[in-house]
Amino acid sequence: VQAALRGRRWQYEIRDRLVEQTFARAALQQADRRKDEFLATLSHELRNGLAPLVYNVAIGNRSLDNTPLLQELFARTGRQVHHLVRLVDDLLDVARISTGKIELSLERLNVLDIVNLALDACRAEVQRKRHRFVIVEECGTDLVVRGDRVRLTQVLSNLLSNAAKYMDAGGTITVRVAHDAGQAVVEVSDTGVGIPRESLHKVFDLFSQVRNQQAYSQGGLGIGLSLVKQLVEMQGGSVSAASDGPGRGSTFAVRLPVVEAAEPAAAAPVADG
Ligand code: ADP
């Protein structure tokens, strides 16, 4: 009888624990949903608030009677506003992804075209720090992948912009484009501050920043690489990070399935700038 009672008590305990766990999970899910809603509302409000600033800076920049001092002021303000817009846009994207509201428009894309679009987006940043930029094309063919033009450009420009950011002036950014086992590989390497081995695995986590790199981060939030990973994975690809350690540069690689690899129409382009 005692054994039967013990067995029954044990069953009740298990049932109570399961009920507790279910409630705790539901509470966590609700908190998570509210966090997503809060993030979405906050980033929308911030983005709306920034719109007049973007407009005013653009008008101010174009004003003919600007003195050199005013021009310098507008240029600096413009850079800060641009930085804030990018930060808030990244926040908006994080909110869109977590609420399943991001839509991709998939099409056939030439990988080198996307590399060049991304470089255009970061050119000012790369030039301001007098970095050298090199494209190494190792695939020997035109690589075509299926992806979203805007989002893939965003992915690569994010990596390029990080390379430019986490490097003292006058560094080198190398983009290697290769074809490996049915995948297009785009590697963005820099000669910058590098990443300690123990931090490599978490650089793609949301809000993750490597310690002792604050001097380079210029107020980032640790969102960009998390977005890069999610956007690439949504397009059937993968990302990875490598570094030989502090002071020895970093390499970020994006891999996407190739849908077509044709002989190139012209000689391999090499950009330097
Ligand atoms: P943010 O740059 O805004 O901090 P990211 O998500 O883009 O956020 O990057 C996360 C962290 O990874 C950065 O804070 C930085 O510590 C590290 N990191 C990213 N790119 C590089 C790079 N090219 N070289 C060295 N560290 C990097």
Automatic annotation (TrEMBL):
UniProt topology in membrane: Multi-pass membrane protein
Keyword Transit peptide: no
Subcellular location per the Swiss-Prot or TrEMBL entry: Cell inner membrane
Keyword Transmembrane appears in the UniProt entry: no
Keywords, alphabetical: Kinase, Phosphoprotein, Transferase
Reaction catalyzed: ATP + protein L-histidine = ADP + protein N-phospho-L-histidine
Broad enzyme group: transferase
Record domain Histidine kinase: where: 41-260
E.C. code: 2.7.13.3
GO CC terms of this entry: plasma membrane
GO terms of molecular function: phosphorelay sensor kinase activity
Name the UniProt record assigns to this protein: histidine kinase
Organism ancestry: Bacteria, Pseudomonadati, Pseudomonadota, Betaproteobacteria, Burkholderiales
